[in-house]
Amino acid sequence: MYYDYHTHSDFSDDSTTPLTDMLDSAIDKGIVEIAVTDHYDPGYPDREFPFELDFDKYHKTLEEMQLKYEGRLRIAKGIEIGIQHDQIGNCHNAATSYDYDYIIGSFHCADGEPLYNGHFYDNKTPLQAYIDYFTYTYENICKFKDFSNLGHMNLVTRYCPVNEVPEFSKYSDICEAILKLLIEEGKGIELNTSSFRYGLDETTPSKDLLKLYRSLGGEIITIGSDAHTPDCLADHFDFARDYLKVLGFRYISVFRNRKPEFIPL
Ligand SMILES: [Zn+2]
Ligand SMILES: [Zn+2]
Fold first, then answer.
1. What is the number of the ligand closest to the CA of 14?
2. What is the number of the ligand closest to the CA of 114?
3. d(Cα 104, Cα 127) in Å, to the nearest integer?
């Protein structure tokens, strides 16, 4: 039985998969509960991918799907909000104008720069890029509070030149500040398994971050594939569950009306 808490459909600008294809495939793959978390990334700097969302249609469709799949697949009404410092008002409006079950807060950009094109690293050492990314995350979660879990916490790793990954101890202080704040506010993190399809040999967050979160008392954690196509649903989920157990986690979380519920591992 799998609980996939990070998935996309063609409501997201970077997916062409109809939502029903994702949901049918989820059932075939043994997923009993799925959070549909399509992108809303206001102010995203790449005009080809504005990551806007047709909210009315999205909400209506999620409710229709909940009825259509009742008894076969539980569907959590979710959204992945891309947070930027100059978009806090838009993020707040998106999060509070509908009764989501679950909201992922993600940082796909930092200091106005999207991470995916690698320019965030220009004129910076990898360590400086890491520190800047986590500092940006910290500063913005001090301002934006309307989310459940922090998405793919160390996304910055995905774009780091191979063999230049900095030592964890050199940037762990700012990560600790982020994790402490999340725990204090009853929020959590996600274990995102999409890193494997990007060729990394680690989950996102990394083992060091997961261990730190657990050692600080962090318990709220979801597992998500970040699938944009059906073949990626529940990818590496057996591995992820075993990994969390080894690291001392006892539960994964699902969400109802923005409140976590715990499923024993
Ligand atoms: Zn994301
Ligand atoms: Zn995503």
1. 2
2. 1
3. 26
Cα of 7 from ligand 2 centre, angstroms: 6
Residue with tokens 């008002």, as numbered in its chain: 89
Residue listed under structure tokens 């990334």: 41
Ligand lying nearest the CA atom of residue 153: 1
Angle, helices 19-28/55-68, rounded to nearest 10 degrees:
30
- Å from CA of 58 to ligand 1 middle: 18
Question: pLDDT per residue over 15-57, tens digit each?
Answer: 999 999 999 999 999 999 999 999 999 999 887 878 889 999 9
For 147-158, the pLDDT digits (tens) are 999 999 999 998
Whether CATH 3.60.10.10 fits 2-264: no
- Residue range 120-139, pLDDT digits in tens: 999 999 999 999 999 999 99
Rounded to the nearest angstrom, the distance between the alpha carbon of 203 and the centre of ligand 1 is 14
96 Cβ neighbours under 8 A, 6+ residues apart: 146
